[in-house]
Design goal:
The complex is a heterodimer.
Chain A: H1 6-19, H2 21-28, E1 35-41, H3 48-67, E2 76-82, H4 87-98, E3 103-108, H5 112-125, E4 129-130, E5 146-147, H6 153-167, E6 172-178, H7 181-196, E7 200-207, H8 215-224, E8 228-232, H9 235-247, E9 253-256, H10 263-269, E10 277-280, H11 289-301, H12 309-328, H13 332-341, E11 345-347, E12 351-353, E13 355-356, E14 361-362, E15 368-373, E16 376-379
Parallel strand pairs in A: 1-2, 1-3, 3-4, 4-5, 6-7, 6-8, 8-9, 9-10
Antiparallel strand pairs in A: 10-15, 11-12, 13-14, 15-16
Chain B: H1 2-32, H2 39-56, H3 61-84, H4 93-114, E1 130-132, E2 135-137, H5 139-161, H6 163-173, H7 175-180, H8 185-211, H9 218-233, H10 238-259, H11 264-278, H12 310-322, H13 330-355, H14 364-380, H15 385-404, H16 412-432, H17 434-437, E3 450-451, E4 454-455, H18 459-482, H19 484-494, H20 496-501, H21 506-532, H22 542-555, H23 560-576, H24 584-598
Antiparallel strand pairs in B: 1-2, 3-4
Helix pairs in contact in B: 1-5, 1-8, 1-9, 1-10, 2-3, 2-4, 2-8, 2-9, 3-8, 4-24, 5-6, 5-8, 6-8, 9-10, 9-11, 10-11, 11-16, 13-18, 13-21, 13-22, 13-23, 14-15, 14-16, 14-21, 15-21, 18-21, 19-21, 22-23
The chains are: A alpha/beta, B mainly alpha.
Chain lengths: ~375, ~600
């Protein structure tokens, strides 16, 4: 909420809450007011870290958008409402956003239960729900106002499988996946692709998000005798698994999904994540201008911190929102139409993002094959580890 | 064969980790008969203080441990002095709620200070590994085992041979008698909380180093596993807690070995239920030991309920009934819809917890059963939504009662722990029973609410529907409470031996209460499923169970109107505090604590 001072915001939301539409419409009608996006996401609760990362990505994108003159001279701003990723709260937030005419577009929520519970409300009210981390295959089936730039796992997992099987030459894989809708969907796409490329799946193990101890799971993995471990994990659990795998003496090649791509993965994993292979959508030395601009801007704004995958998703999403609002203006229906028209928006994840109007998703994520070398992510040089 | 050795070692290693939390919980339970839900938060605070010491101040390990122990002990003393001591003469359930409130506040404070991002907490021990079986163990494993065993041993010696230890045991057996014999009970409590908190803090530090990772979500998990381990070993029994923890670790590890990783917690909670049913006092309770809970109903003390005049109730109902006809924003309506849905759950819980005295901590499971039944009936069998919701209610009533019936012989806190476990089991079964529940993918495309062919999709009509259903359930429950059934329920709650002497069959009445309560909760879950259109195993989680219990205690146990008032308050407050952004849950926790402090019998009092 750095681009709009809290008092205006509070006044705006209070007005919308108390008096309904009439007051707030007049309050936001002047063109000096920023164009407002609603964000529903976790700022407290078990997923709070992801909401914090969203904010960093949003704020960087907004700085750049504002510096480039905003949207036809008007500023772009967002109102972040904390849902704790709880469907009960995300539906209330949905009603709050749809009944506030100043909100032209909604972003989020984080988890599938929270996002998809709110979808019917956005759909009926005709406000676009732009779920940029919603990989659940049914998310955009909620209606024609549901759009997503989340990398489809149907796209991402074959890339990872190709990295592991074709490039690294692994033949017998153990897949460890987060047992959530995302992890499960990813696993299925991965397993299909890996089999197609000629690898054998020795064992798959799903674990719950709160799990911290993987030693017994890793004994199962060891007994299946794989030549590679595939981690469909987030960075914190991915780092835990890598550490414990090395502790119990597993020396196989580890290959992880792009969601572990974060400086935190290196910090939490320490020496254990050395030589871990990661299939990602961009990498620090990527010559693409949008990547260089993103990484340089991020480091400058946040005291030298490296951005991670969730920062990038949020940054891309805000840029996409700006591109859409530029075309569609402030009318909600026109914004929905703008999603079908917007073309080749520069994107860290996709290079250039254009929606597939039939699925309301973006196809063709970029691919980079990285490996952790000397505590840093580096482009894989093709040498075996 | 060698794999089994590895599974055994791994089980012992992780059991070792659980033991650190369980010992602290056991100590507090032994003295004040209180499940300290804030123990996990002290563990969290300890981990972060340790992070500051290690990463910022570069203290050596022995000094780090001392700093963390002292700081955590201080936190424990503050909790005891300002959070719990003022409540010692009030209802027994009030301190339980207070510890929940304290854990909110502590978790939020840590999150606000350190941000929710996970951090690395590097181990300060040399990185050498010893080969054991197929795996290795490191010096931290040994240190954790050492701290766990030493502290259990020291506590055992302290309780058995020191004067203060005798005072602790005397106070735990009979607080009033101990006071008459000149024991300074407050000092005893202070000592116990200080020691338990120091232990909790150090365990957070060591476990953080063990995984090289600390984050703000670690506190609830630590409490859950600690409670399970403690109860398995015998609540209040310190050496028992250590053995219970090791056993828990082993069962989990063997569960993974035989069935796979996603079944891990299922075995932990099944172990708990089996132990509770077979040996309600834990595996290591001696036969001579006094019963763990007083025989008569001091757990839920009677209080004078606030009498609300009938006209006021009617007026309030009328106001809420006509609300949608006025220009209120959909946001307010949606918030109230949430309140009515939570209200139905609270009606259910206030009946089983308040009226008949079975304090359930797994009530979200009833929501989940109702929601899944209703969703699947309408999706796969094309049952009309109205009927499907009723089906959800019936299924919740039947399945919920059947699941809970083994724990009917338990009392007081043990019921809460058994229901907590049953709640977790239901959620894990939903996750793993993929052919029916679609596992983690969840059920999407659930049809919207409809009645006699008309879809209820506007917030106004959903509001009207959920309000009417809740009022009908509330009226039914009011009628039930004023009948002979209600009097029998309360008789069982207040003195089950006397009730039995009068010829009341305890199990039959408890079943009746759960059938009625299960129906209300199942209907609430069913409506939620059709409202959300998508549910998975995370939709109805432990936090919801805890929230429901908070509502019920806040409103006044057994109090029908109180349950609804409590639901409106606890749904409304976090929304009102939205202005405070990230601080809202902190403020919510503080408000909760103040309410418990000044109205421990609930806003409207126990009926």
């Amino acid at each position: 909420m750095s681009n709009i001072d809290r008092r205006t915001l509070v006044k705006g939301s209070l007005a919308a809450m108390m008096a309904g539409a009439a007051v707030s419409r007049s309050a936001f009608a002047q063109s000096s007011e920023p164009i407002l996006l609603g964000v529903s996401g976790p700022l407290t609760g078990p997923n709070a870290q992801y909401g914090t990362q969203w904010k960093q990505g949003f704020d960087l994108a907004l700085d750049e958008i504002q510096a480039a003159g905003g949207i036809n001279g008007r500023k772009l701003a967002y109102q972040f409402e904390d849902s704790q990723s709880d469907p009960r709260q995300s539906v209330a937030i949905a009603q709050k956003f749809v009944s506030n005419p100043a909100i032209v577009l909604e972003l989020g929520d984080f988890s599938s239960p929270a996002s998809m519970a709110a979808s019917p409300i956005y759909q009926r009210a005709g406000l676009v729900q732009f779920g940029f981390t919603n990989s659940h295959p049914d998310f955009t089936k909620g209606g024609d106002f549901m759009w997503s730039t989340s990398v489809s796992q149907a796209d991402e997992q074959p890339l990872l499988a190709s990295y592991a099987v074709r490039r690294l030459g692994l033949k017998k894989l153990a897949v460890l996946h987060l047992n959530t809708d995302w992890g499960r969907t990813s696993r299925d796409y991965f397993v299909n692709a890996a089999k197609e490329y000629g690898a054998e799946i020795a064992v798959t193990e799903g674990y719950i998000a709160e799990e911290r101890d993987f030693r017994s799971t890793l004994v199962r993995v060891r007994d299946a005798n794989p030549d590679g471990l595939i981690l469909i994990s987030y960075y914190s659990d991915g780092a835990l698994i890598a550490r414990q795998a090395r502790q119990v003496g597993l020396k196989q090649v580890i290959c992880a999904a792009s969601s572990v791509y974060s400086p935190k993965f290196l910090e939490l994993g320490g020496e254990a994540v050395e030589d871990v292979h990661v299939g990602t959508r961009y990498f620090p030395e990527d010559p693409r201008p949008e990547v260089q601009k993103f990484i340089a801007g991020f480091k400058k704004k946040y005291n030298g911190t490296e951005p991670d995958a969730f920062n990038a998703y949020a940054y891309d999403a805000m840029n996409m929102a700006a591109a859409v609002v530029k075309i569609g203006g402030t009318d909600r229906k026109a914004i929905r139409e703008a999603f079908t028209k917007v073309k080749d928006v520069p994107s860290v994840i996709f290079g250039q993002a254009t929606f597939d109007v039939a699925t309301r998703r973006v196809k063709g994520a970029m691919n980079a094959e990285l490996v952790v070398r000397k505590g840093q992510f580096a482009l894989w040089d093709g040498k075996p580890t | 064969m060698s794999s089994w050795l590895d599974y055994t070692i791994n089980g012992l290693i992780v059991g070792n980790v659980y033991a650190l939390v369980a010992v602290g919980l056991a100590l507090i339970f032994g003295v004040s008969r209180l499940i300290n839900f804030a123990q996990g938060s002290i563990y969290l605070v300890g981990a972060y203080i340790g992070w500051v010491a290690v990463v910022q101040l570069h203290t050596p390990l022995p000094l780090t441990i001392i700093v963390v122990a002292v700081a955590a002990a201080l936190v424990g003393l503050i909790i005891e002095r300002f959070g719990l001591r003022p409540l010692q003469n009030s209802v027994r359930i009030a301190p339980l709620l207070a510890t929940i409130g304290i854990s909110f506040v502590l978790d939020q404070l840590v999150m606000l200070t350190f941000s929710p991002n996970p951090r690395a907490l590097p181990s300060q021990l040399p990185d050498v590994r010893f080969q054991v079986g197929g795996g290795t163990i490191g010096p931290l494993d040994l240190l954790i085992a050492g701290v766990g065993l030493t502290s259990a041993l020291l506590l055992f010696v302290f309780l058995r041979y020191s004067k203060l230890g005798w005072a602790v045991r005397a106070a735990s057996q009979d607080r009033d008698a101990a006071m008459q014999m000149g024991v300074d009970v407050n000092r005893v409590n202070q000592a116990v909380f200080g020691i338990a908190a120091a232990l909790g803090g150090v365990s957070g530090l060591l476990v953080g180093m063990y995984y090289n990772q600390i984050d703000t979500a670690m506190s609830l998990q630590a409490t859950l596993k600690g409670v399970v381990a403690e109860v398995v070993g015998g609540a209040g029994n310190v050496p028992g807690a250590v053995i219970g923890s090791l056993l828990l670790g082993l069962v989990e590890s063997y569960g993974v070995a035989v069935f796979g990783t996603s079944y891990r917690n299922l075995f932990a909670f099944l172990l708990l239920v089996v132990v509770l049913v077979l040996r309600p006092n834990g595996l290591f309770a001696s036969a001579r030991q006094a019963p763990p809970e007083p025989l008569t109903g001091t757990f839920i003390a009677p209080s004078r309920p606030v009498r609300i005049p009938r006209w006021a109730l009617l007026a309030a109902t009328a106001v809420f009934a006509v609300l949608p006809f006025f220009p209120v924003s959909f946001y307010v309506l949606q918030t109230l819809i949430n309140a009515w849905l939570l209200g139905m759950l609270a009606l259910s819980l206030t009946l089983v917890a308040g009226t008949i005295g079975q304090v359930s901590l797994g009530h979200a499971a009833l929501l989940a059963i109702g929601a899944y039944t209703s969703a699947l009936l309408s999706l796969t069998l094309n049952v009309p939504v109205g009927l499907a919701i009723i089906g959800g209610g019936l299924m919740s009533a039947a399945l919920g009662t059947a699941l809970i019936s083994p724990s009917f012989r338990l009392r007081g806190h043990y019921v809460s722990i058994a229901t907590l476990a049953i709640g977790e089991i239901v959620s894990l079964v939903i996750l793993n029973w993929e052919s029916v529940t679609r596992g983690p993918i969840g059920i999407s495309g659930i049809p919207p609410l409809s009645l006699f062919g008309y879809e209820l999709i506007s917030p106004n009509s959903i509001y009207g529907f959920s309000f009417v259903v809740m009022v009908v359930l509330a009226l039914l429950q009011g009628r039930l409470l004023s009948s002979h059934l209600g009097r029998s329920f309360r008789a069982i709650r207040d003195d089950d031996i006397a009730a039995r002497a009068y010829g009341l069959s305890l199990n039959r009445y408890k079943s009746l209460a759960f059938i009625f309560g299960g129906f209300a909760a199942g209907v609430s879950g069913g409506i939620a499923a059709h409202l959300y259109s998508y549910i998975n195993h995370e939709t109805f989680n432990t936090q919801q169970s805890i929230l429901a219990l908070t509502v019920v205690i806040l409103g006044g146990l057994g109090n029908v109107v109180g349950a609804i008032v409590g639901a409106v308050a606890l749904v409304g407050l976090p929304e009102v505090f939205r202005i405070a952004a990230e601080y809202r849950i902190l403020i919510y926790g503080i408000v909760l604590l103040l309410l418990v402090r000044f109205r421990p019998q609930g806003l409207l009092g126990t009926i």
